[in-house]
Amino acid sequence: MDKEKGLLIVLSGPAGVGKGTVCGALRQQDTDIQYSVSATTRKPRQGEVDGVNYFFKEKEHFEEMIKNDQLLEWAEYVGNYYGTPVDYVRETINKGQDIILEIEVQGALKVRERFPEGVFIFLMPPSLAELRSRIVGRGTETEEIINKRMTVAKEEIDMMKRYDYVVENDEVHLAVERIKAIVTAEHCKRERLIEKYTQLVEVQ
Ligand code: 5GP
């Protein structure tokens, strides 16, 4: 029998919902899940390490990666490119290991087209008021920009319909537990196990 493939897990959701924080908290736990490191043209923030948080690229290099089909998906977000290197994702799932991608919603929909068998998790803010306060809390944006971001966020929330699971991010540790529970449940799905256990019966 072919080795069972790992799960491709996509964690997405509206801007400001806390995808990075939740994924970071999951990463600190001792799970068997691998993490996809994205490529980006945005400049590193303080404390970010090349190859750990992102592969930081010049625009020309990123465009080469697009041209050479090295990205599973990519998107332009607030003036920068972000994309998922495809080779690591394929190698990981082919080895039977799970991998999680933390990406914005446009990219997530593109992954769904190429990997319909992926597990798509939508991280949901507990309320719009909470989302607004997180967006405001980030920096010095004007009222106009905040309102624009809120409009975009509402459109993004509407994308929830295209996902398999919705996880509320009321508290980071609870969101992490829910994601781990989803991964466990996905591993127990009949479709994943039927071949293995049918063989078991045939051997007897
Ligand atoms: P930040 O600049 O704050 O690290 O990320 C900005 C947004 O880009 C976040 O919503 C994050 O989830 C998203 N992002 C990070 N990596 C990728 C990627 O490889 N592809 C896509 N489509 N979005 C990404």
Question: Any overview of this molecule?
Answer:
By secondary structure, the protein is of the alpha/beta class. The protein has a domain at 8-36 and 97-203: Rossmann fold. Helices cover 46% and strands 20% of the residues. The chain has eight helices and nine strands. The chain has helices at residues 19-28, 59-67, 86-94, 105-114, 128-137, 143-158, 172-187, 190-203, and strands spanning 8-12, 34-35, 38-40, 54-56, 71-77, 80-85, 99-102, 119-124, 165-168. Strands 2-7-1-8-9 form a five-stranded parallel β-sheet, sandwiched between helices. A hairpin with a 2-residue loop joins strand 5 and strand 6. Helix 5 crosses helix 6 (143-158). The protein is globular. The two termini are 17 Å apart. The model has no long low-confidence stretch (mean pLDDT 92). Bound molecules: guanosine-5'-monophosphate. Guanosine-5'-monophosphate binds next to helix 1, strand 5 and strand 6.
Sequence-ordered SSE layout with sheet pairings:
Elements: E1 8-12, H1 19-28, E2 34-35, E3 38-40, E4 54-56, H2 59-67, E5 71-77, E6 80-85, H3 86-94, E7 99-102, H4 105-114, E8 119-124, H5 128-137, H6 143-158, E9 165-168, H7 172-187, H8 190-203
Parallel strand pairs: 1-7, 1-8, 2-7, 3-4, 8-9
Antiparallel strand pairs: 3-6, 5-6
The structure holds guanosine-5'-monophosphate.
